[in-house]
Amino acid sequence: MTTHTLFQLCRVGYVSLLMLLTGWFIQQGMTGEYSLAFNLLWIAPLLLPIKGILTGKPYTYAWASFILCLYLLHGLTLLYVTEDAFYFALIESVLISALLVAFPFYARLRGRELGLGLKKKSKDE
């Protein structure tokens, strides 16, 4: 798989996740279970890496996985505790799991293409 194809898949997956969760949390806010402001706070962490993800920066893809872990916990918890939102939680968990594999893979491949990486210490230092 080329990095361009992987980049497109990651980007589409991330935007899909953002739209899915935004719709879910806004709907939860409108039904009155929680305040709309509280539910919008759930979306804020997803917006932090959006620029780097849309432009394809490997470093952003590397650290954005940490943010996705929070939402994976949300999805897995929903799978366990509710029957009403089972399919939503299943879709959320599967999508995030796929992104948790694809993001580091893209970061590694694209980083190699660009010659990025950790600098090795020289022996005389």
How does the overall form come out from the CA principal axes? elongated
Gyration radius over CA: 17 Å
Instruction: Name the poorly predicted regions.
Output: none
Ends: how far apart? 39 Å
Strand residue percentage: under 5%
- Please state the average pLDDT score: 89
| SSE-based structural type | mainly alpha
Number of separate strands: 0
By DSSP (H or I, 4+ residues per run), the number of helices equals 6
Task: Report the major sheet.
Answer: none
Order of H and E elements:
HHHHHH
Task: Please give a structural write-up.
By secondary structure, the chain is mainly alpha-helical. The chain contains six helices and no strands. The mean pLDDT is 89.
What is the element layout, followed by pairings?
Blueprint: H1 3-31, H2 36-41, H3 44-47, H4 50-55, H5 58-81, H6 86-114
Helix pairs in contact: 1-6, 5-6
In short:
By secondary structure, the protein is mostly helical. It has helices at 3-31, 36-41, 44-47, 50-55, 58-81, 86-114.
Keyphrases for this structure?
mainly alpha, 6 helices, 125 residues
